[in-house]
Amino acid sequence: MPVEEMKVLLVEDSSSHAEAVRQLLKSKLCNINICHASTISDSRDFLKEGEFTAILLDLSLPDSSGLQTVLKMRYCAPSVPIVVLTGWDDQALALKSMQAGVQDYLVKGEVDADSLAQSLLYAIERNRVQSRFMHRAEQLQLANQRLKVLAETDPLTGLLNRRGLEQILDGLLGDGEIRLPLVAVLVDLDNFKEVNEAHGHAVGDLALKEAARRIHACLRPGDCAARVGGDEFLLLAPRECLSEGVDFGEILRSNLSRAALPLDRRGVRLTASLGLALVPSAARSIEDLLTLLHPMLAQSKGAGKDRLSYR
């Protein structure tokens, strides 16, 4: 709303004071529409009916007094600039009012038409600048959040990437050691190179997406999965003991190979080999986990694939 079409809510319990303020503002601001409320309750009704450019607020009202008046009005109209116009010449109250979000604190009898109009105009402009700044700050925060997600997410599968999983692991390390029982599972798709060669990389990408979807379907709250290589996935899952981890691993293996992937007319059946272990307290990085799990993964591959090996 342009300043030339200001709609101001004047909250003042004295009708004579309200009329005096109206005359002062009308003498300097030609296109100003002033609505008068004598209580906080009346103010709420006005604010429900329409938008206001600014609020002129007395602090001594029949249903509110002092700083509470500011707080109540801020609650009713958090985005509308407030200028206090009161008979209380109290520096401490003025400071607390400013800290609570008012744009200016004026004392009755110490302002004339020029200073009142100027204060109101400045308050409106400051509020607009602050609103634009807050909007841009929110946009920047959202952009940074999106960038963080992009930086920690594998673009093909939507799972975490290696960096994202490192962030999770860093959080679990806390003061340097992993305290909760944690299972790590390394999943490697069997014969994936042959799938790419026989069907093309586009089909291979679809196979990776479907494998990721099936992996994600097995996760419980608190579990996480990441794509850490071409066809290699690493999972971290809080489990009470190794046997619970083995049950989880078998569910993963079964879900990955339960049906052909409907990627072309013939379908593509993928299986996976898995290596699983409890994460030792000394683990510090993804590389530590891969070093731990690769021998068990090799054992599954050597035993005929589509298997889970653990220790």
List the helices and strands and how they pair.
Blueprint (H helix, E strand, L loop, with lengths): L5 E6 L3 H14 L3 E6 L2 H10 L4 E4 L2 E2 L2 E2 L1 H10 L5 E5 L4 H9 L4 E4 L5 H39 L10 H12 L8 E8 L2 H8 L1 H17 L6 E4 L4 E7 L3 H16 L14 E7 L7 H17 L5 E3 L1
Helix pairs in contact: 1-5, 2-3, 7-8
CATH topology of the largest domain: Alpha-Beta Plaits
CATH C-level category of the largest domain: Alpha Beta
Order of helices and strands: EHEHEEEHEHEHHEHHEEHEHE
- The secondary structure category is alpha/beta
Total number of distinct structural domains: 2
How would you characterize the overall build of this protein?
- This protein is of the alpha/beta class and 311 residues long.
- It folds into 2 domains: 3-140, Rossmann fold (3-Layer(aba) Sandwich); 162-310, Reverse transcriptase/Diguanylate cyclase domain (Alpha-Beta Plaits, 2-Layer Sandwich).
- It contains 10 helices and 12 strands.
Structure keywords:
12 strands; 10 helices; 49% helix; Rossmann fold; five-stranded mixed β-sheet; Alpha-Beta Plaits; single chain
